[in-house]
Specification:
The longest helix is centred in the first third of the chain and has 20 residues. It is built from three helices and no strands. The protein has one domain. Helix 1 packs across helix 3 and helix 2 crosses helix 3. By secondary structure, it is an all-alpha fold. The termini are far apart.
Length: about 80
């Protein structure tokens, strides 16, 4: 599986957060809403997630240092 470059993920996550703040400050501004939706869509495609919130969470997890990322617990063997 190909993974996006960390620098690109960081840049798109910063843009997403910036437009998110602007949208919260100016919810009726259609230009701000359109830019926010564009950045949200780009982040969704980049991270392979269907929703912007999930994409932002995935981007934050991807950008964490490897030692602090959560790992899935090993599967429990059946029959033991």
């Amino acid at each position: 599986m190909l993974l996006p470059a960390r620098a690109e993920v960081a840049r798109h996550l910063r843009q997403y957060r910036s437009w998110e703040r602007r949208l919260l400050a100016h919810p009726a501004d259609l230009a701000v809403r359109m830019r926010f939706e564009d950045t949200a869509y780009t982040l969704c495609v980049l991270m392979g997630e269907p929703k912007a919130r999930l994409a932002a969470d995935a981007a934050e997890l991807y950008l964490r240092p490897r030692a602090t990322r959560r790992r899935k617990p090993p599967p429990v063997p059946r029959g033991l």
